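The protein record quoted in full:
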Amino acid sequence: MPLPATGTVIDLRPDDLRTAQPLGALTTLPVVPVTLNAIEEGTHSLATLAPPLVVVCERGVRSGLAARYLRADGLDAHAYPGGVPALLREVSP
């Protein structure tokens, strides 16, 4: 799945994984770190970001759940299937 030309990438990964492999190095889209707990609790403050929201996690499982919560909040959100490994395959030459 290619990333959209516009929108925002939501990084669900823990801080150590974000630091080890920043998603900003893989895309020109803005990347916003958010926890799944913040999304589940509705304290994410993502409504002001440019849609669509492309939710990325380490393997692609939690991003599906997070995208469902965000859509329930009325946001245009989609999980990135396969997580970071799939994103790396997409952007690698």
In short: The beta strands are 8-11, 31-33, 53-56, 77-79. The chain has one domain: 8-91. The helical segments are 15-20, 36-41, 62-72, 83-91.
